[in-house]
Design brief:
By secondary structure, the chain is α+β, with helices and mostly antiparallel strands. Among the domains are: 43 residues, no CATH class; 86 residues, RNA-binding S4 domain (Structural Genomics Hypothetical 15.5 Kd Protein In mrcA-pckA Intergenic Region, Chain A). It has 10 helices and 5 strands, in the order αααααααβββααββα. A 5-stranded antiparallel sheet has the order 2-1-3-5-4, with helices on one face. The longest helix is centred in the N-terminal third of the chain and has 16 residues. The protein is globular, with a radius of gyration of 18 Å.
Length: 203
């Protein structure tokens, strides 16, 4: 599956928000859009432009391509409730994002790699699909056969200090976590305005 392979800091500068942990230093120095006219640009962004940027921000943050992201929107639109909140809940409960939220990885791309390479199991069974949707009651663990690998050994200190959101429960010494509830709107990423995304797809 094709993914962005260029500098991730340019993506953060494009949408005006730090999308990845390592972007903080660069984003602080260059808090303007990329390109030769980025710092001097005074171009006004249209309503459609704001909607598009918000969609791009969410896509890049969760590492989802357009076709899949549109699928999440359609799925959210069919459910009862606020479509925007449901959309974010679907993104949050992807397995790769859940692994990231539990502290098993320092970034979402790293979490996606752990899942794809077979490091993660759900309810005792290996799952290697990053987009797998976790449910309330699911137990997400690092597989016992992978627990002593160099990748995980390097992460154990970080996992011990992890503070997952309230919809997740972590047992850091067992390298395991559980989904306690559906993510509440107030626990979701406040930098994303889902209403703008809904307006974009409703045009």
């Amino acid at each position: 599956m094709a993914r962005h392979t260029g500098p991730k800091s340019r993506m953060s500068r494009r949408v005006g928000t730090r999308l990845f942990p390592k972007d903080e230093k660069i984003f602080t120095k260059r808090n303007f859009p990329p390109g030769i006219h980025g710092a001097a640009s005074r171009r006004r962004i249209s309503g459609y432009g704001h909607q598009l940027l918000e969609k791009q921000k969410a896509k890049w943050m969760y590492g989802v391509l357009e076709k899949q992201f549109r699928g999440y929107y359609k799925k959210a639109a069919k459910k009862h409730g606020q479509t925007g909140s449901i959309l974010l809940q679907l993104l949050e409960t992807r397995l790769d994002n859940t692994v990231f939220r539990l502290g098993f990885a320092t970034t979402r791309p790293q979490a996606r790699q752990l899942v794809s390479h077979g490091f993660i199991e759900v309810n005792g069974k290996k799952v290697s699909i990053p987009s797998y949707q976790v449910k309330v009651g699911d137990q997400i663990s690092i597989r016992e056969s992978k627990a002593k690998s160099k990748n995980i050994e390097n992460l154990k200190t970080i996992i011990l200090k992890a503070q997952p959101p309230e919809w997740l429960q972590l047992d850091p010494r067992a390298l395991s976590g559980r989904v306690l509830s559906v993510p509440a709107r107030e626990t979701l990423d406040a930098t994303i305005n889902p209403q703008l995304i809904i307006e974009h797809y409703s045009r």
